[in-house]
Amino acid sequence: MADYVQKKRKELFLFGEQLSVLDVRSFYYLKKELGRSVRNSNELLYDAGKDAVQKMQSSFVKFLGDSARVLMSDPENALNEFVEVLNYLGLGEISIPESGLKTIKFVVRHSAEAQEYVNLKERSKSPVCYALAGIFAGVCEGILQNPVECKETRCIACGEEVCEFVIPSGDDIILTRGGGDDRQGHKA
Amino acid sequence: MGLKGMISIEKGLVVVAGERSVLIPPSFITLLQDRVMKEKGEKWREIFYEAGKKAMDNLAPTYKLIMLIPRNSASKKKLIEELVEIWSWMSCGRPEVTKIDLRNNHFTFRVYGSTIAKPYLGRGEMMCDYLAGMVAGGFGSIIGESLKCREVKCIANGNEFCEFEVTGV
User: Fold this and answer.
1) Which of B9, B32, B59 sits opposite A26 (nearest CB)?
2) Who among A7, A33, A56 is closest to B47 (CB)?
3) Which residue segment(s) compose the domain that B88 sits in?
């Protein structure tokens, strides 16, 4: 088991906070039920993903203290470290093929959020990984200390090979040490 | 009970009880519940109950395949106990089935430390409708009948544990 996720008896913890298990089929049915019953369920899932990861970041800082603060002051390293953590939460294989001045791009292979669409051969017209997009927005927002929006541009539920997420370009995102006041985020 | 290798965590992939899963902070579900409550009022209960039930309607039959009891000797009681053992790995609290009456389709199920109810301590209401749906769907799939489940005690309501009554429809 990855070091990030700690197991105590049958309970799982990340940075001292409990985690729960949600199997991908239950996730799919939860999304479907929300989609059927609630207005803007996509936005709701996005917000829930964002909020969850931001709470995770706070626990990370609380749990690791000074070393976390040092890491957070180096945005590129912090981003890579968080992606590594997310990789052990079962969301899919996450990588960052591109980051820098203009955009941050995340690629997810076998997205847990879209997997059941593939299993059920349900082809979606538009990307479905709203919670994941929220998670990536939350991670970047926490690191850059600026509001950002994340958009899924490719999705396996639409027949693509991978899911791809972009923090859209506009103002520069500077992922370098000491970006400080020059760092700017994006609004969609 | 000997359900070995129940949880596997590798880079990019978490598998629990043979099912691909994600690890989420309980606040993920809390935020969804809160927002649905705000928009739909009391109807939130039905929405989350249905989501839990549909998930288990589909999952329990798969779980049956990985349970270690030889199929020909598998009693429904044993299967229910195994299902509860699987749920104990979901890190949502400690589940326990306290009554199994197959003749009358009456079951009592408890969860100690429900992670769904914990954020609502002191609220004075039952809050585990999602779990209630899961129990109805899970037990119903095992016994092959339609069941309904009602939460009768909840830590959010000041009780020591969350308790669910399951009966035939």
Assistant:
1) B59
2) A33
3) 26-168
